[in-house]
Write a structure and sequence with these properties.
It is a single chain. By secondary structure, the chain is mainly alpha-helical. It folds into 2 domains: 10-192 and 298-328, HUPs (Rossmann fold); 212-284, Orthogonal Bundle (Tyrosyl-Transfer RNA Synthetase), CATH 1.10.240. The chain is 54% helix and 8% strand. It has 15 helices and 5 strands. The protein has helices spanning 24-38, 51-54, 61-77, 95-104, 109-113, 116-124, 130-133, 135-144, 158-175, 215-223, 242-250, 253-265, 270-284, 286-296, 299-328, and strands spanning 10-17, 43-50, 86-89, 150-152, 183-185. The chain has a 3-stranded parallel sheet with strand order 1-2-3. Strands 4-5 form a two-stranded parallel ribbon. Helix 1 links the parallel strand 1 (10-17) and strand 2. Helix 3 packs across helix 14, helix 4 packs across helix 8 (135-144) and helix 4 packs across helix 15 (299-328). It is elongated. The structure holds adenosine-5'-diphosphate (ADP) and tryptophan.
């Protein structure tokens, strides 16, 4: 039985770090599916920019702010309606830091030591700080501070969501129902989007396609996608090619069949395929690219839309935090 008043709509929540500019993997894997879900009137959506998480890696404030604005602009350009849904910067709702501390005291050390993403990052990064270590606790707080029911994320975030449920249910077991247990929504159709080098596209691997870039650098990035060195005339295998792997995520059924046949027939070079991909990105994201550029020239407008969301996010966060303080004897 739930001992607190729960809102009737399903609450959808997800966040994206501002460690770089959003890329095609973020768009197809997170932003676009989450916006689609938010159009359902039965849902209430909260989307945030995880700038406190970014601080684990980015210490340059100017750069972090630029990335934060670019991430907000990407959400808005991709169709998020900030008058209906709540878009906010994680750092502007400091209640999340207080909740993180409480949750830290309920999180077993070995759970964090076993986190895949910490293990991976601690091998890769030179700055292995305590913030990185408690990342899953802050992420748990991000979610349960807003009574989120559904959290759309990519496959790589599955373990973090399991930890969030574990931490929340261990608190509930000790103190009675306090938190909603969140469910991960992992869209099996959205596979891991490959980057320009064929590995998972990620800001931290420097292999991203930033579809909001100006045409010239965008074309240069597309042309840099790694392929084998088969000559133009030779037939090619579409299924082992990075260019085709990205093209098929964006193209129509007919477009995919055409490019597949071009590969198999030969006399079709990787340069041709890359040019087709470049043109497809421009046409597919034409509207989003214009909106994004306009917003980036107008940071005041981005800020206005964010502040609107932050007011509403604060109200929800404070209600949940008060519930926790009462349970813990801090009120
Ligand atoms: P990055 O790896 O570039 O730092 P984030 O960790 O900020 O990306 O990811 C933000 C969201 O975008 C997450 O839900 C994540 O699962 C999704 N995402 C990131 N990269 C990809 C990808 N290559 N394919 C599919 N989804 C992705
Ligand atoms: N860890 C997520 C990522 O790297 C970003 C994130 C932070 C998040 N807090 C969240 C995602 C809460 C969903 C819910 O992709």
């Amino acid at each position: 039985m739930v001992h607190f008043e729960k809102q009737s709509m399903a609450r959808i929540l997800t966040g994206i770090q501002s460690t770089g500019r959003p890329h095609l993997g973020n768009l197809l894997g997170a932003i676009i599916p989450a916006i689609k879900l938010s159009k359902d009137k039965a849902n209430q959506s909260l989307f945030f920019i995880a700038d406190l998480h970014s601080l684990t890696q980015i210490k340059d404030s100017k750069l972090r702010i630029e990335n934060t604005n670019a991430t907000a602009a990407a959400w808005i350009a991709c169709g998020m309606d900030t008058t209906q849904q709540i878009l906010y910067r994680q750092s502007r709702i400091p209640q999340v830091c207080e909740l993180t501390w409480y949750l830290n005291c309920f999180t077993p050390y070995p759970m964090l030591a076993n986190a895949h993403s910490f293990k991976e990052k601690s091998h890769k990064l030179s700055d292995v700080n305590a913030g990185l270590f408690i990342y899953p606790v802050l992420m748990t707080a991000d979610i349960i501070l807003y009574d989120a029911d559904i959290v759309p994320v990519g496959k790589d975030q599955k373990q973090h969501l399991e930890m969030a449920r574990d931490i929340a249910s261990s608190f509930n077991n000790q103190f009675g129902d306090t938190f909603v247990l969140p469910e991960a929504r992992i869209d099996q159709n959205v596979m891991t989007i490959p980057g320009t080098d064929g590995q998972k596209m990620s800001k931290s691997y420097g292999n991203t396609l930033d579809i909001f870039m100006d045409e010239k650098p965008l074309r240069k990035t597309v042309m840099s996608i790694v392929t084998d060195s088969k000559p133009m005339e030779a037939p090619k295998d579409p299924d082992s090619c990075n260019v085709f792997a990205i093209y098929r995520l964006l193209a129509s059924e007919d477009g995919i069949v055409d490019m597949r046949n071009n590969y198999l027939d030969g006399n079709y070079g990787y340069g041709h395929a890359k040019q087709a991909l470049f043109e497809l990105i421009l046409s597919k994201f034409e509207k989003e690219r214009v909106l994004f550029q306009d917003l980036m020239l107008n940071p005041k407008e981005i800020n206005r839309q964010l502040e609107q969301g932050e007011q509403r996010a604060t109200e929800i966060a404070q209600t949940v935090l008060d519930r926790v303080r009462i349970k813990l004897g801090f009120i």
